Amino acid sequence: MSPTNRTVVVTGIGATTPLGGDAASTWEGLLAGRSGVKPLEGERFAELPVRIAALAAVDPGDVLPRPLARKLDRSAQFALIAAREAWADAGYTAKAGEDEKIQPNRLGAVIASGIGGVTTLLDQYDVLKEKGVRRVSPHTVPMLMPNGPSANVGLEVNAQAGVHTPVSACASGAEAIGYAVEMIRTGRADVVVAGGTEAAIHPLPIAAFANMMAMSKSNEEPEKASRPYDTGRDGFVLGEGAGVVVLESAEHAAARGARVYCEVVGQGLSADAHHIAQPEPSGRGIAVAMQNLLDDTGLKPAEVVHLNAHATSTPQGDIAEIKALRKVLGDDLDHVAVSATKSMTGHLLGGAGGIETVATVLALHHRTAPPTINVDDLDADVDADIVRDTPRALPEGTIAAINNSFGFGGHNVVLAFRTV
Amino acid sequence: MAATQEEIVTGLADIVNEIAGIPTEDVQLDKSFTDDLDVDSLSMVEVVVAAEERFDVKIPDEDVKNLKTVGDAADYILKHQA
Predict the structure, then answer these.
(1) Please, is A385 exposed, middle or buried when counting C-beta atoms within 10 Å of its C-beta (0-12, 13-18, 19+)?
(2) C-alpha angle B75-B77-B78 in degrees, rounded to nearest 5
(3) What residues 139-198 of chain A have any CB closer than 8 A to a CB of chain B?
(4) Of A104, A266, B57, B62, which residue is the least packed, with the fewest Cβ within 10 Å?
(5) Terminal-to-terminal C-alpha distance of chain A
(6) What is the Cα–Cα distance from A144 to A361, expressed in whole angstroms?
(7) Does residue A166 contact residue A267 with C-beta atoms inside 8 Å?
């Protein structure tokens, strides 16, 4: 199908996060500056150097019927809950075809996860060792496969234009949304359900991340552990949950009279080619992604008033991102209200791009930038205007916002949104 | 002590309720696992494993395909239980 370069808009949002079981309660938590980080209780976490995480505020097992939940990895449970919310929020009342506003062959789904069904894999290995071959669940493979969340969301809404799962560690959710935008731009679909999910709070991933020296060990003060831009930051805090948006061509949204949150301006992509896990310290690759965004979409730095930073609370990564912002935006960075919402939600890995896109869309919609908490002593190298402690109003008129996501492997994904 | 057919159907109803969420009273002898009880081929493996444990019986994979209805399963278990 020939490229059409159609305008893409956001018509629905959904989320289940450490701050709340839906997008509204998550947004409320962000504005309140509430930390979702909690101690990890239980013997299996007792020996770990890291015993904190941002657990989902609402357990998905309390939301989904048990026969359904038992066949889904926790990451797919989160994705399905967020997707159902986004789908209803967009004004669809049934799956494609049954709701005649969208036909199945014009609907796609792109949901990503950084690690996939890791808890299913590990739990079923325990079953194999402790109870034997016969007891390993026949649902194990569909549960652990990384495309499981996307496939289950696709089944839920009857998406037949294509169901995809880009994987790029902590950039996965953002890459999924970028991929969805391209599906609509190129004419493959009119509507795409897109986002990211993650459920990796288990002793093994925590031990592994901790041994990389990537995680905060602030076990005594969980709510203070995630502190992007503060001089005392010592690594990220693992979070879980999902964020999903419904993207739609502007003409399709207009034809059905849909409420439009904002336009998706587009994406900028790059790769560091520097190290498998270390950030490139000058922010070179991030700057390339941002420049690609500006060049490809015509977005003007003067329009950008808000940025939801990747800022995971690691010593190197937070500064590399700021350097890239200054390099590309120049003096225009001075009018950008920068928010590091991971200070409250923790880091959802592949889910981060999903929930932070929801946060960015809501920031434009409500013209309010959420705060960054725990910046008690701002790092002198943070040469940007950080929104600290309380929300900040964004200007009137047409305004734009950026959501950054970067992943192990050197993947850089920059998404931009604009009010309509 | 071997279970009676009635006890087996009650047990299967509990298992199908746990796995597929079907009310126990709907699990009757003439009901098809796939067509009536929302038990797909993967979930059928779970039903079989749970039934094996509950009734102390072995149901080899090659026999599972013949268990179309609750009645088929109950008869099989009745005949093969230890």
Answers:
(1) middle
(2) 60
(3) 139, 142
(4) B62
(5) 27
(6) 30
(7) no
What confidence tens digit (pLDDT) does each residue in A323-348 have? 999 999 999 999 999 999 999 999 99
Q: State the Cα–Cα distance between residues A297 and A304, nearest whole angstrom.
A: 13
Cβ distance of A71 and B43 shorter than 8 Å: yes
Catalytic site includes residue A170: yes
Distance in Å, alpha carbon of A133 to nearest chain B alpha carbon? 11
Of A164, A170, A306, A411, which residue is the catalytic one? A170
Report how many Cβ contacts below 8 Å link chain A to chain B.
22
Residues of B with CB under 8 A from a CB of A: 19-21, 38, 42-43, 45-46, 49, 52
pLDDT tens digits, one per residue of A148-206: 999 999 999 999 999 999 999 999 999 999 999 999 999 999 999 999 999 999 999 99
Catalytic status, residue A347: yes
Q: What is the pLDDT of residue A3?
A: 57
pLDDT at A5: 81
| Chain A contact set for B64 (CB, 8 A) | none
CA torsion sign, A363 to A368 to A373 to A378?
positive
* pTM, two decimal places: 0.97
The pLDDT of residue A411: 98
In angstroms, how far is CA A114 from the centroid of its own chain? 10
**What are the distances in angstroms from CA A80 to CA A60, A77, A137, A153, A372?**
9, 5, 21, 6, 28
Query: Which of A124-129's residues contact partners 24+ apart within 8 Å by CB, and which partners?
Result: none
Q: For residue B76, give every residue at least 6 positions away whose Cβ sits within 8 Å of its Cβ, in sequence order, or none.
A: B57, B59, B63, B66, B67
- List of E strands, A240-399: 241-249, 262-271, 304-308, 337-339, 368-369, 392-393
In this model, does residue A87 exceed pLDDT 70? yes
8 A C-beta contact, residue A307 and residue A337: yes
Write out pLDDT tens, residues A23-80: 999 999 999 999 999 999 999 999 999 999 999 999 999 999 999 999 999 999 999 9
For the CA atoms of A56, A59, A65, A70, what is the dihedral angle to 10 degrees?
80
Distance from CA of B49 to the nearest CA of A (A): 7
From first to last of the 82 residues of chain B, give the pLDDT tens digit.
688 999 999 999 999 999 999 999 999 999 999 999 999 999 999 999 999 999 999 999 999 999 999 999 999 999 998 7
Q: What is the DSSP letter of B82?
A: -
